[in-house]
Every structure is written in structure tokens, then in C-alpha cells.
Amino acid sequence: MRKIASVMALVLTAGIAVIGPSSVSAAAAEQSVTEDVWNESWWRPAGWNVVKIHRYMKADGHHYVTGYINAPNGTSAFYYDRSYNGGKTWESFVDRRYVNGTNQLPEKYNDGGVWYRVCGASEWLNNPYGNPQWGYNIACTAWY
């Protein structure tokens, strides 16, 4: 079980969980061997949008992640955040693109001390970077 270093915002709206940003302790940040993991986060600017991250192991024995989005409710920014310390600090907007509908981010190598999360933001709605309203104008998955 992962120990959470910061409180995760969990809001249940219409039976759907909206998860805000999180960071994990150094011990929990160690990447465990997982064969196939999915995580998703929802936001609602004008209807429900979702970002997902898929972490998996390939035949070469290494882990990879791929990000997905379904944003039918207006053009949204879609990108990876990348961290080398389990989410304490990170680089944003890796492979950023703008989508209206479904899309996929490039596959990323996910072993050796690098973590990724997938984010989606409605940049046209109340400055999601300067004034993030988790679950309303921005959403990010957990770190993997």
C-alpha cells in the first residue's frame, strides 16, 4: 500500500471520483513491478472529460506508460508531467498537444527513476495553471 505524502482531493460527484494532484513518499515512490495498471482522472468544464495513464511491462522486461484522453467538451490541453523524485517536483507539458475528442500521447520508458502522470486542462476556463480548480478546469492521474 502506498503512503501518501500529501492529501489527495477526492470528490464524489454523480458517483464519479475526481482525484487531484498528489506526491508520494520516497519509499512509496519506488516503482514496484506491475504488469498492467490503469489510472484515470475526470474533469468537468462543460461535460465530463477524462485522462488516463496505462503502465505496462513489455517483452523486454521494462515498464512503459501511455497517456490517453477523451475530451468531447471543448478543446483541451493534454500532456505528461515528468518527475525524477516521485512527484515532489516535475517538468510539465511534456509532449503537449491540443485535442477535441480522443487522442493518445507517445509511449514513454518508465523504469530507472522517472515517473509520469497524464494531465488534461481546459485552458480557456479560468486559468487552470494559475488557478487550478481540480475536477473543474484541470485533472491529472496518479504518478507512475
Mind explaining what this structure looks like?
The chain is built from 1 helix and 9 strands; from the N terminus they run ββαβββββββ. By secondary structure, the protein is mainly beta. The chain has one domain (10-140). The strands form 2 sheets. Strands 3, 4, 5, 6, 7, 8 and 9 form a 7-stranded antiparallel β-sheet that branches.
Number of strands: 9
Number of individual domains:
1
Give the proportion of residues in helices: under 10%
The percentage of residues in β strands lies in over 45%
Runs in which pLDDT lies below 50 for 5 or more consecutive residues are 1-33
Largest sheet: 7 strands, antiparallel
- Give the helix tally: 1
Q: How would you spell out the order of helices and strands?
A: EEHEEEEEEE
What is the mean pLDDT? 78
Distance between the termini: 14 Å
Summing up helix and strand content along with how strands pair, one would put the structural category as: mainly beta
Q: Whole-number radius of gyration?
A: 15 Å
Categorize the overall geometry.
globular
Keywords:
144 residues; mainly beta; 3% helix
Write a brief structural summary:
The protein is mainly beta. Helices cover 3% and strands 50% of the residues.
Question: How does the SSE layout of this entry go?
Answer:
Blueprint lengths: L9 E4 L2 E4 L6 H4 L6 E8 L5 E9 L5 E21 L7 E14 L3 E2 L5 E7 L16 E3 L4
